[in-house]
Amino acid sequence: MKNIPWQERPENSKEVMWRYSMNPIIERDAIPSSNSIFNSAVVAFEDGFAGVFRCDNKAVQMNIFAGFSKDGIHWDIEHDPIVMQKGNTDMIDSDYKYDPRVVFIEDRYWITWCNGYHGPTIGIAYTFDFREFFQCENAFLPFNRNGVLFPKKINGKYAMLSRPSDNGHTPFGDIYVSFSPDMKYWGEHRVVMKTAPFEESAWQCTKIGAGPIPILTSEGWLMIYHGVINTCNGFRYAMGAALLEENAPEKVRYRTKPYLLSPSVTYEQVGDVPNVIFPCAALHDEQSDRLSVYYGAADTVVGLAFGKLSEVVEFTINNSL
Ligand code: BMA
């Protein structure tokens, strides 16, 4: 991938991942209607990048908006939300849409998001051009969040991570993987990863959820995820990583005991929901080993963090639970 957004590790930093010095890259009022723009997804597209952005409007209605960028940092986000046409179903009801993920598989871009259908569940749509979008059947029954597709079929089937949950601010939650022959019917549900014991890794002891599209490495799928601790001041969201077996992603090989990034700068600690780092997308350039992760900060803005993929993999192996 040419022109992946990038900044070298600061000289005084020994961290495995570091923040872009110009964060946040998307401010809360980047479009006229927005109260906040945060948990959002981007991919390489044509000679630049495209994305699907979570913008909550000033009535605090949650919706997803398309956007385009030449450099992955400066974004033009459409002023109107994505309008869905019918994909593989007539039933495209949606009370709200949030926390999108985007991936290119075979011949098109697939979008998954948390779709309001009598409670949160996983919506699926596809697009070829980020102009026309076609909504498909919801993947699961409510209640579910954090639906994240793998970028290729596994054993001949589409594969998706998800996090069954409840109707509210879920105080629990583990990651599962499900499979589908056709992007419509999902089954063969397997547990991947549960919350960690409080005494061992408290930042991920309350709930966890997959973040960006997993990246295939020589050590298996790198799954970046968020982990939550319930503190006396509410939930705190940090970011970690796990390595899953390539042909059996329900098998976890390694999983970070320490977090990779946790809320520690003002735009992550202060906002509509304080203390949230919520990764939803990653870009990777194989040649240069560069990894760029997009995350929602404090449910208000979008930030960018960097690392070297091989170092994140090594860190995950050497610091595993
Ligand atoms: C989760 C989701 C995310 C949000 C997070 C922190 O339940 O609603 O969209 O970033 O809470 O508020």
Characterize the structure shown.
The chain is globular, with a radius of gyration of 18 Å. A hairpin with a 4-residue loop joins strand 21 and strand 22. Strands 2, 3, 4, 5 and 6 form a 5-stranded antiparallel beta sheet that branches. It has a 5-stranded mixed beta sheet with strand order 7-11-10-9-8, with no helix packed on it. The chain is built from 3 helices and 23 strands. The model has no long low-confidence stretch (mean pLDDT 98). It is mainly beta and 321 residues long. The chain is 6% helix and 48% strand. The longest helix has 10 residues, at 309-318. It has a single domain (33-318), classed as Tachylectin-2, Chain A (5 Propeller). Beta-D-mannopyranose binds next to strand 8.
Question: In brief, what are we looking at here?
Answer:
The protein has 321 residues and is mainly beta. It has a single domain, classed as Glycosyl hydrolase domain, family 43 (Tachylectin-2, Chain A). The protein has three helices and 23 strands.
